[in-house]
Amino acid sequence: MALYLEHFGLQEPPFRITPHTDFFFDGADRGATLEALLYAIQHEEGIVKVAGEVGSGKTMLCRVLIERLPKNVETIYLANPSFTRDEILYAVAEELKIEFSRERVTIALRALQDRLIESYAQGRRTVILIDEAHAMPEETLEQVRLLSNLETHRHKLLQIVLFGQPELDKVLALPSLRQLKDRITHSFRMRPLSQAEAATYLSFRMRAAGYRGPDVFDAAAVAAIARASSGLTRRINILADKALLAAFGAGAHGVSDRHARAAIADSEFTPRWRAPRPALATAAAAAAGVLIGAVGYWLFDPGPAPAAARPAAAPAPVARAAEPPPPPAAPVAAALLGREQALRLSGYAAGRNPLLQASIAAARERLDTEADARHSIELYLTDNSDPARVERFLMRARLLVSLKDLYIVPLESAGQYRIWALYGVYPDQAAAEQAAKRLPPKYLEAFRPVTRSFAELRRAL
């Protein structure tokens, strides 16, 4: 192994399958999911669910979550799915160092509640992270629901995060567990990596292990590994490690398709998924459930398709009559944005960030149709236009407000973009000012809301 590391200039093995938090990959929405989890836990969001296939990275996410929670959050990690109804209660109590008789469960519950109230009064929070939740007996999951009921008249005393395979959704759909399902405030999905994400992941792991130089895995090797692994990170690790060994054995300093196929032949994985083609990546990501707790058609709806992208069958006579050059993208009377303004808006690269894409599309529609006198609320204006950062803001925002009312406007100047975050549409300035006072306290503390007319917003473009 020392020769293997030296051959590739590595300080440690890059593709170990045991979770190592220094190797946490925040691409493919992992980083955004982590931030949303941190926020939900610290803001008393009740029960949260994280589902994903075997080897998708749930345990790694859990380990990083434990590391990054603030010191005032006490974590209890339960990894035994065979707990009985009473055993899970006793396990929680033991983690909190509560002493009581095991003869009566009601006494244990009372002792647990007293301990949690005392901790809350001291500014401490408690979260239970339950792994393999899909394999837990129904009666144990029902006890989890009862634990979630521990609260004061104003505050939840326990935050609970359920980690499990996709079967967890089927378990929670059982009639006997409908009360538990109703208490789940947010759902997270660990989706497989696309081929492009797999390439980024392989490069990231190599560099986290100390590698410096051009990417080791060529495009053909990445494609083969992504396909054979079904995009699951544990499988990618196994195949990448074997491919590196094959390259090392051949005296090569790069991993080619031949080395990747040798690794695949030495494994027994049956691909269940094809890496999405680049042209389909955004749609595939949405269909795979990239978004945290994604509900509602508006979240994924990109808006009306351009005329050229619509089916050509049976066009209406009116549509044919409206085609003299130059062809308008929308009725001229309804378009309030100028051509240059629209081009500047569309020039911002939102990347594969569905929330951001939807928010920009909604903002453009509003800017194109709202009357000059109508108003919105400016939350903030920033020079940091990183799409991933804005996507994470939107994921956190959905815990506080409706994303249907949040509009992201990219402002371009000399080829550089700034990000403008707006909230709501109101008939006049007075209505907008009143709405600004009702924003979540967190927003009132973090931002300085200002009302803007749509005439003013359009001029800024």
For this entry, give a set of tags:
single chain; 461 residues; alpha/beta; Alpha-Beta Plaits; 4-stranded antiparallel sheet
Task: Write a structural description.
It is a single chain. The chain is 44% helix and 13% strand. Helix 6 links the parallel strand 3 (125-130) and strand 4 (159-164). It is built from 20 helices and nine strands. Among the domains are: 30-190, 3-Layer(aba) Sandwich (Rossmann fold); 331-460, Alpha-Beta Plaits, CATH 3.30.70.1070. The strands form two sheets. A five-stranded parallel beta sheet has the order 2-3-4-1-5, sandwiched between helices. Strands 7-8-6-9 form a four-stranded antiparallel beta sheet.
**CATH superfamily name of one domain?**
P-loop containing nucleotide triphosphate hydrolases
Query: So what's the oligomer here?
Result: single chain
CATH class of one domain: Alpha Beta
- Count of alpha/pi helices: 20
Instruction: Report strand %.
Output: 5-15%
* Overall mean pLDDT: 81
What is the topology, as strand order, of the major beta sheet?
2-3-4-1-5
CATH architecture of one domain: 3-Layer(aba) Sandwich
